[in-house]
């Protein structure tokens, strides 16, 4: 009898002696003591946890997914984790080969060692191809190579497209008469010569005012050389007389019975037809299109005062008429203002058309002038030998008008369009100033 059993029996005798436990409890304990106790229950009573995992020798199926045994590698096809109990070999789910990194490196190197390892890991895998199989495949590849090289050397057309409408667009079609064939061939040769011929007889268009040379490059479509002939054919078919004649002997005549009074159309001030096409160029130049040019100070103020009449530019403009003048945000220095005032005082022999402005504001709309012409430097020297501008192109300005109230604006390069609201306000201010004076 073990020590545990002796202690349990002595404890039971003490409980009986002092009536600590009843007879039913004693019977239950006796009955319970007769049942066999497992090792797991003994371990649980002793609070012993199982930590060691048993790994059987050889390859055995295990579904622990690397939680009980050490993981080996996951399948690259289905993703299942294979443990070391299953070992390297086909995946138990999809059949794909699963192996360690070292074994994978051996398989990638190839050779006899890779073949033996593959045969060990997957006995069901195919064996290496024989020399006879390799020779047959090599001969097929060589035959294909020779055939392709022969096609490249001959450059022969081996495909044919059967199109029922191909002869409709063909100039050598058997369905057109010889005259039309000759016309089509003549036009095709002309278009081909025009597109790929010599450039010695290429027409160009010269613009003397703007000194531009524009090459006339008409679009030539060689894929439709008979377009004009088709148009003439369609035109002739439309002009044919109908099958049934509609001409009768009766011709209707117009009889005026009474004068019909038609109301005169009402003209709206805001209608789009208010501005018509003017036949006179001088009347066209009088139009105010709201175009503006930004200049640095003090040139801008002297221009709207009429002291400066010529404005030099490096580019040509075809604009004629009212041109608004704005001052940039660059603040002029006192030396620049003094030197320019002395220059124009000497130019006019101390008889200026108008006095100098009291100040030179920046970043605002100053007034407008009328551009009469834009001359090149050669023409400018012929018409104005004593002119002060030396720029390639010179704007000839007159009728300078200054705004009584300057409008702040943001300038831009070259000639640009004013904001419609600012333009309308500036035009009204100029008109009121003229009426007042």
UniProtKB/TrEMBL annotation:
TM region positions: none
Pfam families per record: ASCH, TRIP4_3rd, zf-C2HC5
Domain ASCH, residue spans: 293-381
GO biological process terms on file: rescue of stalled ribosome
Span of domain TRIP4/RQT4 C2HC5-type zinc finger: 61-104
Residue span, Activating signal cointegrator 1 third domain: 164-216
GO molecular function terms listed in the Swiss-Prot or TrEMBL record: zinc ion binding
InterPro entries assigned to the protein according to its UniProt record, in alphabetical order: ASCH_domain, PUA-like_sf, TRIP4-like, TRIP4/RQT4_C2HC5_Znf, TRIP4_3rd_dom
Single GO cellular component term: nucleus
PANTHER family: ACTIVATING SIGNAL COINTEGRATOR 1, THYROID RECEPTOR INTERACTING PROTEIN RELATED
This protein's name: Activating signal cointegrator 1
Source organism: Trichuris trichiura
């Amino acid at each position: 009898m073990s020590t545990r059993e002796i202690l349990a029996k002595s404890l039971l005798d003490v409980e009986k002696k002092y009536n600590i436990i009843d007879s039913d409890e004693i019977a239950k304990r006796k009955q319970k003591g007769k049942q066999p106790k497992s090792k797991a229950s003994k371990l649980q009573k002793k609070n012993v946890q199982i930590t060691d995992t048993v790994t059987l020798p050889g390859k055995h199926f295990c579904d622990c997914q690397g939680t009980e045994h050490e993981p080996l590698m996951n399948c690259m096809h289905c993703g299942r984790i294979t443990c070391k109990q299953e070992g390297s070999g086909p995946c138990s789910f999809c059949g794909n080969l699963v192996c360690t990194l070292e074994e994978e490196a051996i398989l990638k190197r190839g050779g006899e060692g890779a073949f033996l390892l593959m045969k060990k890991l997957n006995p069901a895998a195919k064996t290496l191809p024989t020399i006879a199989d390799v020779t047959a495949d090599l001969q097929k590849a060589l035959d294909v190579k020779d055939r392709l090289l022969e096609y490249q050397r001959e450059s022969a057309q081996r495909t044919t497209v059967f199109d029922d409408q191909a002869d409709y667009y063909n100039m050598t079609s058997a369905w057109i008469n010889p005259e039309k064939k000759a016309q089509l061939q003549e036009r095709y040769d002309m278009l081909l010569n025009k597109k790929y011929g010599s450039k010695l007889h290429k027409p160009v268009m010269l613009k003397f005012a703007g000194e531009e040379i524009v090459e006339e490059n008409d679009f030539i479509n060689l894929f439709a050389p008979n377009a004009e002939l088709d148009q003439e054919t369609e035109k002739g078919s439309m002009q044919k007389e109908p099958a049934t004649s509609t001409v009768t002997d009766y011709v209707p005549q117009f009889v005026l019975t009474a004068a019909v009074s038609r109301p005169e159309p009402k003209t709206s001030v805001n209608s789009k037809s208010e501005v018509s096409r003017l036949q006179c160029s001088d009347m066209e130049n009088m139009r105010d299109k709201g175009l503006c040019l930004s200049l640095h100070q003090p040139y801008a103020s002297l221009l709207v005062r009429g002291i400066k009449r010529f404005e030099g530019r490096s580019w040509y403009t075809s604009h004629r008429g009212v041109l608004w003048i704005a001052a940039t945000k660059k603040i002029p220095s006192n030396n620049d203002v003094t030197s320019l005032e002395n220059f124009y005082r000497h130019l006019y022999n101390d008889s200026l058309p108008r006095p100098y402005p009291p100040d030179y504001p920046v970043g605002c709309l100053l007034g407008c002038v009328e551009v009469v012409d834009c001359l090149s430097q050669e023409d400018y020297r012929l018409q104005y030998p004593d002119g002060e501008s030396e720029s390639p192109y010179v704007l000839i300005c007159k009728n300078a008008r200054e705004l009584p109230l300057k409008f702040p604006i943001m300038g831009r390069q070259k000639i640009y369009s004013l904001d419609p609201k600012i333009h309308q306000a500036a035009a009204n201010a100029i008109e009121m100033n003229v009426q007042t004076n």
